[in-house]
């Protein structure tokens, strides 16, 4: 791929409102499609905001009616906010685009970045993003005298952790030693150019995720670099590491078109 340009839009007190960043993405997407600019990755923080991809169910939205921004990416609902590094790689890819391969490249770069901080992460089959793997069910601690062998999350598709006390909250998945998502990925490909991207939890208040069913996943939770390391981790530490690994993976990649039967090139999406 071509050289990747990074643009740091705003962090901390200069965090970028979601709608403003979304418009910025549209502008860069149009320019990249016309080959007016090189591949570009926007890096930023958002003020607290819930965003919902096209597949979000009503039952996954905040119970208290907190506003949600509906967006044109794939996937379901998630949260963005302070302490979370958001990246929007806007890349021109060969058509028809191999969306899965693009997601895997983003995952690879983030897995490498987390490893540099000493956090071992992985992929989970059927679930995009970067994960800290939990213990097997039989090795997890019981909560409130209830054996996790009878945990309703294992059997009941309608189980809603928001109604079952703080011990089941997504932000407490580390205490339960469950699988927990450290970085979410949700993208959109239009005219062969990618939009949206990833959100890496550096040091956020993960209790924001407790109001929703993050990414529509009821049997796992969320994590952060700071939580896994047991120390404060700053955005200043993480930015150059993530940039380095994104550059190494994306600039050295040789994307190939997806092999398909004759069909029109359409807008495609990937899950959070």
CATH architecture: 2-Layer Sandwich
The class by helix and strand makeup works out as alpha+beta
Give the total of domains: 1
CATH class: Alpha Beta
CATH fold type: BirA Bifunctional Protein, domain 2
Distance N terminus to C terminus? 24 Å
How many DSSP E strands? 12
Per CATH, the superfamily is: Bira Bifunctional Protein, Domain 2
How many helix segments? 4
Strand content: 15-25%
pLDDT average, as an integer?
90
Cα shape: globular
| Radius of gyration (Å) | 18 Å
How would you sum up the major sheet? 9 strands, mixed
Helix/strand order: EHEEEEEHEEEEEHHE
Low-pLDDT ranges: none
Q: State the helicity in percent bands.
A: 10-25%
Keywords: Acyltransferase, Transferase
EC number: 2.3.1.181
Enzyme class: transferase
Protein name: Lipoyl(Octanoyl) transferase LipB
